[in-house]
Amino acid sequence: MTVQLEITGKEAIIKAEGDLTLNGAVELRMGLIKAIIDADDVNVQFGAVNGVDLSCLQLFCSAHRTAGRMNKRFRLSAEWPELFKLAVDDAGYARLTGCSLDRDNSCIWVKR
Amino acid sequence: MEDMIAKLRETFREEAYELLADMEAGLLELEQNPGDLEQVGRVFRAMHTIKGSGATCEFADISTFTHEVETAFDLVRKGKISATKEIIDLALAARDHIQALFDAYYKGAAAVDPSKGPEITAALKKLLPESAQKVVPLPQAKARTKKEGAGPSVTYRIRFRPAKNIFTTGVNPLFLLQELKELGPCNAVAQTEGIPFLEDYQPDECYTFWDVILTTSRGMNAIQDVFIFVKDMSELTVDVVDTEGEFDEEHHKGLGEILLERGDLSLENLQSALKTKKRVGELLVETGAVSCDKVESALVEQQHLREVRERRQAAETATSIRVPTNRLDSLVNLVGELVTTQARLSQTALSHGIPAFVSLAEEVERLTAELRDNTMSIRMLPIGTTFSKFKRVVRDLSAELGKEIELTTEGAETELDKTVIERLSDPLVHLIRNSVDHGIELPAEREAAGKPRCGSIRLSAAHSGAYVLIQIQDDGAGLDAEAIRAKAVEKGMIAADAVLSDKELFALILLPDFTTAKRVTSMSGRGVGMDVVKKAIDALRGTIEIRSVSGEGATITLKLPLTLAIIDGFLTKIGEDHFIFPLSSVEECIELTREAAAKAGGRHLVNVRGHIVPYISLREKFAMSSEAPAIEQIVIVGEDGRRVGFAVDVVVGEHQTVLKSLGRFYRDVDGISGATILGDGTVALILDLPKLIRAAEQEDALAS
């Protein structure tokens, strides 16, 4: 997995590509923590994705909760790679409403 | 046992070919839109059913081969490989191989080259990632049949909470969920409450657990089998929530009831929530009695159960059944006999003049007409069933010829008698091949002519009265009128100075042994073909019209009757002989006195409200010796936008006409397309109006 972090003012863009799996989860977690600490608005953008597993989905979920607790914004880009969409559906992560920690109706798994 | 397998195979026959057609259509769509997951699913489902039903029918070679192809295609479905052109080419080759195997059994076709299957699977394996090249062998057919034995359809509620360290054991929980989905309709809802904030998050821990609702007929053991390797490190509960025939179909569980059953909600909390007028789910979440995830999961269960029951009810009240076509043909024949007998009954009733008898005969006539229409409608099929075949023809031939061609279709839902559709397939293939081979130019030639590189062929069908019009329109080079004329003169078909309209000139290509092609390819240009197409269309009582504009393209229009079995006819008499006009062509009838005929000076022309209409004397045409009456009847018909009359002695009226073919000796008589039997047992001949008109025009041309 390749994780690139760009912070401009209060905005952070995390570009993730390759295998979004357990192997790169440590690196992705570090990137997410830094982005949420350093910026108020964190946006994840996907490059070419070769694989997605549950560890990656859980991590994004955790990042969204963490950002919400700090009154910050965390989003996934609107365009999801096919593999990512499949993994979200297979894992039963797609939602109609957000969870109890979704303070501002910004759950990243709600189908909009 | 063998008898049973033979019966199973016969039952599977039609479905097998339908599945192959569906697989082909899906692959061709996928080729156009490689990311279309719906088409990926369509192709996969077709393969999966061929494999499963093939195993049940003990087609071991088909089942094993399809299993290997399906395994490769599953990687496309899972997004692990893309649906590249190579994959689609091989999947199409695999589909053709499966069809050849079916043909060998069902149609007695030549035995299939045994090396073909392994060649395809080997080529497929080369395109797969190394990890996916090993195919798990298919269980033996008998074992599989037993496993899939259709038990009752049961809906299970599964809660699967894997151990936190499941990732480190090498198990991917998503694969387990995918396996569950293969057992039947399945909805999984992830419960994510346990996911911690980032500072406490351990990347190698699993914080998610699942509520799954699954409907399957494979039984509890099949579910337990999915979790067999993780059951010691997971919490797994499986409850039955609905069984076919055992639960009240009318009762739909409320959200609170489901949450209570799951143990996610206490009775006290539910009772206090029900006392308010708010929605139960919203209130329970607001008060913190249940988490959002659990309410969502219960809602999914509620919806799943509703859909399962609706599907079950729809299946129970299914309005369609599969019937062998020979039974349908036999029904149509019987209705034909009934129509003939009913005509005799009506005639007998009228001749006896007993009012009650006449009234009864009229009632039988009404019912027979309804029965006829209903029976004929059963034989109607949408023409689109043959369209997918043409997409493949265009795809393969254009690739072979290095051309870029897009085939578009329109009016696939247009219905035609199944016999017409079956007999139309080959002529249409030939016409489309002609368009690909001779019509559409090579990409470079098209660009030089200022056209887009990609040529287009449009295949359309539409109803027009009692006919269906089928058009094949291309934007290619069009027909070369000069070349056709030169060839026709060279072959002595027309005189060098003959004056012909474009329509007459283009019609020459329908004559036997006519070709202007300078080269012979594997598909056309041999000079046999268009005349064969014409013969086939003639046999369907249809017509062909060709229009073309040089450099812009050609349009071929086929006009075909809706049915070949029973038509509404218009009965007439000449002397003691009966003749039938297709009613749909008849416009009006007028009288022709001997004096009026004499005034025309021997020319067969009649004045109809100021317009001159030519007519054909059928007495003369068929060289009948009887004397014409003082007043003849002219039946005026509309053909190709012209009005032409036919002189007969007496007009009898409308007649339900059961078409019978003429015997071998009379089959080629010009101007007669068939016969029917009247109520009194006499035979009436059915007129082939286009041929009669054409013959009269040719005689006129020769005379002048």
Q: Could you explain the architecture of this structure?
A:
The complex is a heterodimer of chains A (112) and B (704). In chain A, 35% of the residues lie in helices and 29% in strands. Chain A is of the alpha/beta class and 112 residues long. Chain A has a single domain (2-90), classed as 2-Layer Sandwich (Transcription Regulator spoIIAA), CATH 3.30.750. In chain A, α1 (25-38) packs parallel to α2. Chain A starts with a strand and ends in a 22-residue tail after the last helix. Chain B folds into 5 domains: 2-146, HPT domain (Four Helix Bundle (Hemerythrin (Met), subunit A), Up-down Bundle); 149-316, 2-Layer Sandwich (Alpha-Beta Plaits), CATH 3.30.70.1110; 325-379, Helix Hairpins (Orthogonal Bundle), CATH 1.10.287; 381-561, Heat Shock Protein 90 (2-Layer Sandwich), CATH 3.30.565; 566-703, OB fold (Dihydrolipoamide Acetyltransferase, E2P). In chain B, the strands form 5 sheets. In chain B, strands 6-8-9-11-10 form a 5-stranded mixed sheet. Chain B has a 5-stranded mixed sheet with strand order 19-12-13-21-20. The longest helix of chain B is centred in the N-terminal third of the chain and has 31 residues, at 2-32. The model of chain B is unreliable at 140-149 and 519-528 (pLDDT under 50). Classes of the chains: A alpha/beta (112), B alpha+beta (704). The interface between A and B is large, with 36 and 38 residues.
Fold topology:
The complex is a heterodimer of chains A (112) and B (704).
Chain A: E1 2-8, E2 11-20, H1 25-38, E3 41-52, H2 54-69, E4 73-76, H3 82-90
Parallel strand pairs in A: 2-3, 3-4
Antiparallel strand pairs in A: 1-2
Chain B: H1 2-32, H2 37-56, H3 60-77, H4 85-106, H5 116-126, H6 141-147, E1 154-162, H7 173-181, E2 186-191, E3 209-216, H8 219-226, E4 234-243, H9 255-262, H10 267-275, H11 280-286, H12 292-316, H13 325-352, H14 355-378, E5 380-382, H15 384-401, E6 405-410, E7 415-417, H16 418-439, H17 443-448, E8 455-464, E9 467-474, H18 481-490, H19 502-507, H20 530-539, E10 543-549, E11 553-561, E12 566-574, E13 577-582, E14 586-593, H21 594-599, E15 605-608, E16 611-617, H22 618-621, E17 631-639, E18 642-648, E19 650-658, E20 672-677, E21 683-687, H23 689-703
Parallel strand pairs in B: 6-8, 13-21, 16-18
Antiparallel strand pairs in B: 1-3, 1-4, 2-3, 5-7, 8-9, 9-11, 10-11, 12-13, 12-19, 14-17, 15-16, 17-18, 20-21
